[in-house]
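Thread: Modeling a multi-component assembly for a lab meeting

Hi all, long-time lurker, first post. My supervisor asked me to bring a structural picture of a complex we are working on to next week's group meeting, and I have zero experience with this. I have the sequence lines for every component (323 residues in total). Could someone generate the structure of the whole assembly? Inputs are pasted exactly as I received them:
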Amino acid sequence: MTLWHIVLIASIACVALKLAGYAVPPHWLEKPAAARTADLLTVALLAALIAVQTLGAGQALVVDARVPALAVAALLYWLRVPFLVVVIAAAVVAALLRLWTGMA
Amino acid sequence: MGVATAAYGVSFGALAVAAGLDVWQACVLSLFMFTGGSQFALVGILASGGVAAGGTAIASAALLGVRNAAYGMRMKPVVGATSWWKTAGAAWLTIDESTAVALAQEDPAARRRGFWVTGIVVYLGWNLTTLVGALIGDLLGDTRAYGLDAAAAAAFLGLIWPRLKSHQTIAVACAAAVVAAALTPVVAPGMPVLAAALVAVLVGTTNLLGRRTAREATP
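Re: Modeling a multi-component assembly
Sure thing. I ran the full set together rather than chain by chain. Output:
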C-alpha cells in the first residue's frame, strides 16, 4: 500500500459515508443509542489522537516538550483564545523549550 | 467561522506535509474527503506509524466520518435536492459547519440557503488554505524544531474542546486517552486509536454516566 492508496481509499470511505446518510431511511438515527454512539465516537477518537500525538514516539511513551505545549494550549482554549493563536502558541512553546533547554 | 476554518485548513496542510504527504496528497484529501476530523486523524496516524499504519489510519478516518452519515440523515429533508446530482453535491458538502448553520435557521428556505452557502464557502476556503498550509509545511523542513508536532496535538484539542460539555463526553475523552496511551507500547501504531473507539461504543450503547433522553424515558 502506498501513500496514494491510503489517501484515495480513505477519501472514498468518507465520501461513501456522507452518501449513505442520504440513502438510508432516516428512522435509523432516531434510536438514541445510535446517535449518542456516533457523537461519542468522535470524542473518543480525537482524545486518543491527542494522547498518541502528545506522548507517543513510535511505540514508546515519552514526556517531552509536547506536554507543556499541550498544557499551554488547554489553558488558552479555556480562556477562549482563538484556534489559530492557540496552535501557533503551542508550536512556539515546544520550539523554544527545545531551543533553550535542549528538551527533546 | 471563516477565520476558524482558514486556521484549520492552514494547520491541516502543514501537518499533512509534516506527516510525509506531498502537497498534492494534502490537497486531494481536502478536495475529495472534505471532512476535517477524518483528515486530521489520517495524517496524525500516518505521522506516528507511516505507511505501515495505513489500514488503521483509513479505519480511524472512516470512524470519524460516521457522524457525517448522521448529519446526512438530518439534512436530507433540508437541502431540497431534486435530482441525484444535487443529492450527491449536498452529501459532499455535509460537514459539521454546514449542518450546524442549517439547523440554526428557523424557516425551511433559510435552512436550505444556510446549508448550501456555508458548504460551498467552507469548501473553497478549506481547499485554498490547505494548499497554503502544505506549501508552508514544505518550506519549513524539520518540523519538530518548529514545534509542529505539539501544534498537531493542540489542533486536535481544539477540535474536541467544544464537544466537552457533559460528564459523559469528558469521561469518554479521558478514558479514550488513557486506553490509547496505555496500548501504545504494546500494539502496532494506529491500533491504540482504534481500540479507544471501543470506549465510545461501550458508553454509547449502555449510556453509562448519561442522562436518559426524553424518548427513552417515555414507556
